[in-house]
TrEMBL record:
Protein's name in the database: Glutathione S-transferase
Keyword terms: Transferase
InterPro entries: EF-GSTs, Glutathione-S-Trfase_C-like, Glutathione-S-Trfase_C_sf
Keyword Metal-binding: no
Lineage, broadest ranks: Bacteria, Pseudomonadati, Pseudomonadota, Alphaproteobacteria, Hyphomicrobiales
Organism: Bradyrhizobium commune
Molecular function terms from GO: transferase activity
Gene Ontology annotations of biological process type: translational elongation
Cellular-component GO terms for this entry: cytoplasm
Origin superkingdom: Bacteria
Length: 268
């Protein structure tokens, strides 16, 4: 039985925060899920699975209206799922018994680090390092919120100048802080080894790169990409660190194919 089971839409860089951490720590993480559009046809539960057609009628009492990302969709969520996941969102993680739920990708990643803390100190070597890591994770939440609003607007064809400006400002603040943290030639954001701060940074930037796949939507409303061709010149340490992490043995299998696919769209 896995130490942690995660149900989510896939692919999802925010889920990979946990799988990357698991490789460092030797924690067994099980992933269940499907592309976002297909989750309408899944039972949302610890034992998440695709629904048979006849079950959509027999389980109609479980139907709930989706919100973020699946707005307006009819989703089949069990009462046990809602008990464990009170906000009803994915990624949704569960302990081995399915009763304890962990939600929000940074918290799921922290759970993995705690489970494997004796094997690799991803969450810092003392209370001070752990708190500094938390500082990076908290800052990432501000960027992640505006990033999500922006990417959903792009995918839904509703992006406008205000949403774009807010995302651009959020990215600038986040990237500037990362740049400063790496200014002394460091190879990690906290301490001397990779930590949860680095994992979160890599996953959030990879997710933001979905902007590359929506260049046409931006062009139609007269907007430029936030990740424009010269952005690496503005934040050289930030992007060099990202490139190193993507090539790292514990990051590569999740992030490299995803990033390369998006970069190919940027080139096109």
């Amino acid at each position: 039985m896995a130490d942690l089971r995660i149900f989510s839409y896939l692919p999802n860089p925010r889920v990979w925060k946990a799988t990357i951490a698991a490789r460092f720590c030797g924690v067994d993480v099980e992933i269940r899920g499907a592309p976002a559009k297909d989750l309408r046809d899944w039972l949302w539960d610890y034992n998440a699975r695709p629904l048979a057609e006849h079950e959509r009628t027999s389980l109609s009492a479980l139907a709930r209206t989706g919100r973020v990302g699946l707005t307006g969709s009819q989703l089949f969520k069990t009462d046990a799922f809602m008990e464990a996941q009170p906000f009803g969102n994915v990624p949704a993680a569960f302990g081995p018994d399915g009763e304890v739920g962990v939600f929000e990708s940074n918290s799921i990643m922290r759970a993995v680090a705690r489970l494997g803390e004796t094997r690799f100190a991803l969450y810092g070597r003392d209370a001070y390092e752990a708190s500094r890591i938390d500082s990076f994770l908290d800052v990432s939440l501000v960027f992640a919120r505006d990033s999500q609003i922006y990417l959903l607007a792009l995918s839904g064809g509703t992006v406008d100048a205000a949403v774009h400006a807010r995302a651009r400002e959020a990215f600038g603040i986040y990237a500037s802080g990362i740049e400063q943290a790496l200014s002394s030639g460091r190879d990690a954001l906290v301490g001397t080894a990779i930590s949860l701060a680095d994992i979160c940074f890599a996953a959030e930037l990879a997710l933001f790169m979905n902007e590359h796949a929506r260049a046409d939507q931006l062009s139609k409303v007269g907007l430029d990409r936030i990740l424009h061709p010269a952005v690496q010149d503005e934040y050289p340490r930030t992007f060099a660190h990202f490139a190193r992490l993507v090539e790292h043995e514990h990051f590569r299998s999740d992030l490299k194919p995803y990033v390369e696919k998006l970069l190919s769209k940027a080139g096109a």
